[in-house]
Specification:
The protein is α/β, with parallel strands linked by helices. 33% of the residues lie in helices and 21% in strands. Strand 11, helix 9 and strand 12 form a beta-alpha-beta unit. The protein is elongated and about 75 Å long. The chain binds pyridoxal-5'-phosphate.
């Protein structure tokens, strides 16, 4: 496989590196100047670890990363390097991943409602796997993409997820029969079923239920003469350690459900977004302005007043930028102080505001913080999912720069993964203890199993 990553775009860091170290370095560099723009540090080693963890926890499932979650170049490239597939929802996302050399058969166009010109684009560029959940889509596809391999998206119970998707997408079970019949009549090939339990899913049973539902749809489709070979279990997996439920707990429900309802003969894919990127990104913002507000309780004022004052801080990224996750992803980002405060420092009720002129641009309030100053830094962890993806340049504030860090050991692991995927017969050699110090030998042993499914 080609090496897409140019080392110059990255800081290669030695083992033992934590994102915080690179952050510290950048902050140090900034301290020589007045230029203290907000910035991200993206730890690509974290993405590599997530991938290995995915292969271990869900050995039968091939991940197709959902590009919409974070389409930054470093993320897409590292995942391509490791042989992941991609869930694209638009022409531009297809262009992005094909632009770095990803094969069309590693792409699923997972948007059930597509513009005709974009369906044609997919057809011209060899992207065949596409989802649908309605009749109109089927007739559009039959006219514009005769070679499409359609995947029927079914609705789920997403009531226990933070980002509900089945309000917009997914055919109810009782509509599936009609859709499958219509596909047959239109000569449109249906190869599988997909679902999404909702983003930020807290109920692993939702996956089991949808896998069972998918089985029913497989049976129905087979009756209509469709040759069903693909199950797509979507996304919804947690991306941070503080999530209500661990990824492995979800996997412990998914695996037996797959073995019960799909014991063999199908390719199984997933479309994880948040899972891969949430914890990889840390954000540093700088305080650009500050305003003290005296307490409203003017009556009971004791003139010392200090504990009564509250402070508004204005920082150089906000809800029109990376913090759009507050509105679009129900996030509640909490700052970490760059300078450790001493315990004697009094705390003040504080609020954090973005740099734009909109009153809506508020990041957090009711924080208890020691007094901070213009030029101080605040850090935010777990800022990789649904942040950079939807950030705008509203009011002339530029998108926040991403600094990628690739730990040397993780890079070695990526190369081993590539060999593992490409040459399954080398199982024994690949599984010998690693020199890179990464505990990846177990998961690499999954590679041959994987390759034998023919997906890779
Ligand atoms: C958004 C989306 C995903 C990714 O969801 P996560 O919850 O971030 O894993 C996957 N598939 C589809 C179709 C989506 O719309």
């Amino acid at each position: 496989m080609t090496t897409y990553i140019q080392e110059s775009d990255f800081t290669m860091v030695e083992e033992g590196f934590v994102a915080r170290d690179l952050m510290e370095e950048i902050i140090n560099e900034f301290s020589q100047t007045d230029d203290r723009d907000a910035f991200f540090v993206a730890d690509l080693g974290d993405v590599v670890k997530k991938h290995i963890r995915f292969l271990k926890a869900l050995p039968r499932v091939k991940p197709f990363y959902a590009v919409k979650c974070n389409s930054s170049r470093g993320i897409v490239q590292i995942l391509a390097e490791m042989g992941a597939g991609f869930d694209c929802a638009s022409k531009a996302e297809i262009e992005l991943v094909q632009g770095i050399g990803v094969n069309a058969d590693h792409i699923i166009y997972a948007n059930p409602c597509k513009q005709i010109s974009q369906i044609k684009y997919a057809a011209r560029n060899g992207v065949q796997m596409m989802t649908f959940d309605n009749e109109v889509e089927l007739s559009k596809v039959s006219r514009n993409h005769p070679n499409a391999k359609m995947v029927l998206r079914v609705a789920t119970d997403d009531s226990k997820s933070s980002g509900r998707l089945s309000v917009k997408f997914g055919a109810p079970l009782k509509a599936c029969r009609r859709l499958l019949e219509m596909a047959k009549n239109l000569n449109v090939e249906v190869i599988g079923v997909s679902f999404h339990v909702g983003s930020g899913c807290r109920d692993p049973q939702a996956y089991a239920q949808s896998i069972a539902d998918a089985r029913l749809v497989f049976e129905m489709a087979t009756e209509f003469g469709h040759s069903m070979t693909l199950l797509d279990i979507g996304g919804g997996f947690p991306g941070t350690e503080d999530a209500k439920i661990r990824f492995e707990e979800i996997a412990d429900v998914i695996n037996p459900a797959l073995d019960r309802y799909f014991p063999q003969g199908v390719d199984i894919i997933a479309e994880p977004g948040r899972y891969y990127v949430a914890s990889a990104f840390s954000l540093a913002v700088n305080i650009i302005a500050k305003k003290e507000v005296s307490s409203e309780s003017t009556d009971s004022d004791d003139e010392e007043g200090c504990p009564n004052k509250s402070i508004m801080y204005y920082v150089n990224d906000g809800v029109y930028g990376s913090f759009n996750c507050i509105f679009f992803d129900h996030a509640h980002p909490k700052p970490i102080l760059h300078k450790k405060p001493s315990p004697e420092q009094p705390l003040y009720k504080s609020s954090l505001w973005g740099p734009t002129c909109d009153g809506l641009d508020r990041i957090a309030e009711q924080l208890d913080l020691p007094e901070l100053y213009v030029g101080d830094w605040l850090l935010f962890n777990n800022m990789g999912a649904y942040t950079v993806a939807a950030s705008s340049t509203f009011n002339g504030f530029q998108q926040t720069r991403i600094n990628y860090a690739m730990p040397r050991g993780a890079w070695a692991a990526v190369q081993l993964l590539q060999r593992g995927f490409q040459q399954p017969e080398e199982k024994e050699t690949v599984c010998t203890p690693m020199t890179c110090g990464w505990e990846i030998s177990d998961s690499l042993c999954f590679a041959p199993t994987f390759a034998s499914t023919g997906i890779i």
